[in-house]
Amino acid sequence: MAMRNTETRWGWPSKLLHWLTAILILIQIPLGYYAEELKLSPLKLDLFVWHKSIGILILLLAIERLLWRMIGTIPKALDTSVLQRRLAQLAHATLYGLMIALPISGWITTSAANIPTKLFWLIELPAITGPDEALKSMAAEVHEICVTLLIIILVVHIGAALRHHFILRDSILKRMWF
Amino acid sequence: MMKYLVLIAYFFCQLTSADQWQSDHSLSELAYSVNFEQLPIKGQFKDFAVNYSHQQQLRVVVDITSADMGNSDINEAIREFDWFNIKQHSQAIFLSETIEAVSEGAFIARGTLQLKGITKPVSVPFNWQLSDSPELTQHASMSGALTLNRSDFSIGSPEWASGDQIGLDVSVSFKVKMSSTASISNAPE
Ligand code: HEM
Ligand code: HEM
């Protein structure tokens, strides 16, 4: 399997990073909502350690992916319509933005909430701000808005991928698959 | 033996040169630290009073309702039934029975701590340092640290009893400014 991306295909690092992130995000969203709804309990604290650990992992994968994308080529868009191409570009750019903004806003939330974090109970995540209740509420608000935006774009993103595959019957999904 | 006597004499000289000592609220702090998912988080009791007199020994009264851990959710949680249960137990009291001099300026107060309605023997090591003051009011600083096990006082039970999420060991530390107004004499007895 090719490592580098070409004009027509994704190389395996891009594919691997895409699907790994996809799985993690699809776990992360329900995990976040569920943990948030729980009343304070040992389970809630443990689930938040998982949530924060997976979230920072997503951040690292997103950075890795963007760097890999920048040093190589990427497959050309297939769509004939300029509008559709622009929309796809906008959606992808926003998804990358959210993969950065979500972990950072979550990180600010726990830091400002004065809660320490040991990722996967192994690595200490340093606080990026001091304790600050107002900042905590603001960051949590941003986190939640980002989550809503993420869900909307993902519905469109996944819907578009399925449309390409089953209705337009082109190679968009295939070239991202292995 | 001789050394011991000297220490005792020193201790009396240091601690009994004035009769009644009390803490200065604004210059004193009582802090604690406990592991939260394996990393320490800090808290403090903003209101507490330390009194020392030769007759009554050492007496520390802590207003549990003044606990602050720098996070509104945690502050709410620790006041609940499972943790401090402040509705029923708003005060903790340490009373010394004996005070032993260990070395110059260092002592151990042995006594009992009543916390969340449970009384247990506790030893509190502390340093006592008199500051030179020409005035009638005498000042001293008192500091020390000890570790308590929260399950001894049924704090965080039963759901949190394992200590996996919130540690069982609680490190307590204090820095207290003491002053004595009823200064009688500085002479060793
Ligand atoms: C399970 C559902 C998903 C499917 C079926 C899917 C499908 C696809 C496909 C087929 C592409 C390739 C588009 C092309 O070649 O032009 C793609 C790209 C992309 N996907 Fe997904 N995806 C899914 C989930 C996600 C998730 C959860 C995220 C992250 C939040 C995500 C982020 C992206 C991004 C950023 C790109 C653009 C890659 C680039 O241009 O560098 N996808 N996706
Ligand atoms: C892509 C990564 C992430 C996703 C998709 C995500 C998703 C979510 C969701 C769905 C919720 C529940 C709804 C809400 O209150 O917003 C949530 C809450 C939360 N997340 Fe994340 N999260 C991510 C990363 C992180 C990271 C890296 C951290 C911390 C290091 C974090 C910390 C939190 C916190 C503290 C809450 C509770 C917020 C509150 O108290 O209102 N999240 N997250």
Structure description:
The complex is a heterodimer of chains A (178) and B (189). By secondary structure, chain A is mostly helical. Helix content of chain A is 71%, strand content 3%. Chain A has a single domain, classed as Fumarate Reductase Cytochrome B subunit. Chain A has 5 helices and 2 strands. Chain A is elongated. Chain B is mainly beta. Chain B has a single domain, classed as Beta Barrel (Lipocalin), CATH 2.40.128.110. In chain B, 11% of the residues lie in helices and 52% in strands. Chain B has 2 helices and 11 strands; from the N terminus they run αββββββαβββββ. The longest helix of chain B has 14 residues. Chain B is elongated. The chains are: A mainly alpha (178), B mainly beta (189). The interface between A and B is medium-sized, with 16 and 18 residues. Bound molecules: protoporphyrin IX containing FE (HEM) (2 copies).
